[in-house]
Amino acid sequence: MDSITIHNLKKSFGRHPLPAVDLEGDFAVGKGELFGIIGPDGAGKTTLFRILATLIRPDEGTATVEGLDIVRDYRTIRTILGYMPGKFSLYSDLSVRENLEFFASVFGKDIDSNSDMIENIYCRLRPFEKRKAGNLSGGMKQKLALCCSLIHSPSVLFLDEPTTGVDPSSRRELWENLAELRDRGMTIVVSTAYMDEADRCDTVAMMKSGKFLTVDSPSDIVAQFDRRLLSVRSDDMFRLLHDLRSMETVEKCYTFGDTHHVTLKDGADVSVDGIAGRLGSEYGHTGVTVREISASLEDCYMNLGDK
What we know:
CATH class of the largest domain: Alpha Beta
Mean pLDDT: 92
Order of helices and strands: EEEHEEHEHHHEHEEEHEHEEHEH
């Protein structure tokens, strides 16, 4: 059963030449699925979230949440939806406890009757529940925002880049919490610019310029990478990038951490030692290391994004 469906959804703003969201065809999120939307800033993730959360209307197309139309049934959808925007949007001058009580009251709920949904998260906030929300650390603000999104026991949860600006420990705790909620049957849609987080999702949609490049499980996306991939270093990394891109056997080359990742053209008959030798003898590089590696999700995104 599908929890969310999307059909030919489009949204543009003003006179901008390209739509912010331009999803042709049909897409669906299964009930109880942890669905990740992965892409850089400007890909269209937030606009898509705002459409599905009934905050803005699409220009074209339709979508449903739990079988309810996002335009016609927006009032009902808002009662079954949890939404955590990317920017901290709670009341900074209210305490932790007061924020939670307020958001519970908006849905006609109280904290005690819904505490089971948030207990594993709120237990870390309880020592600070009298502290004003504006004085919390980034990780604690994240936990409070998640609690406020869950206090009415929603069927579907949207989280827009929830790990931006928080420490690695809080990032890990959040994903552990999401896995627990998914295991309890909640449908979760989360967006992120961090490719390493996509491995924690059941299904991933890679998004660029308002479009989905691919929608599949993380393992299947990696399995579909159909080029040889190399990791290359030298003592002059800036010049190395230009020189690698000039080689006739190289399809694309991009910086990846402290190395350059090189995708070879289909059928390129060249060895690792051959490339290393050319970089030394023909291009004058020193300290050259070349390794053949397996693709990551970020490599898959770079490969798909240029097609």
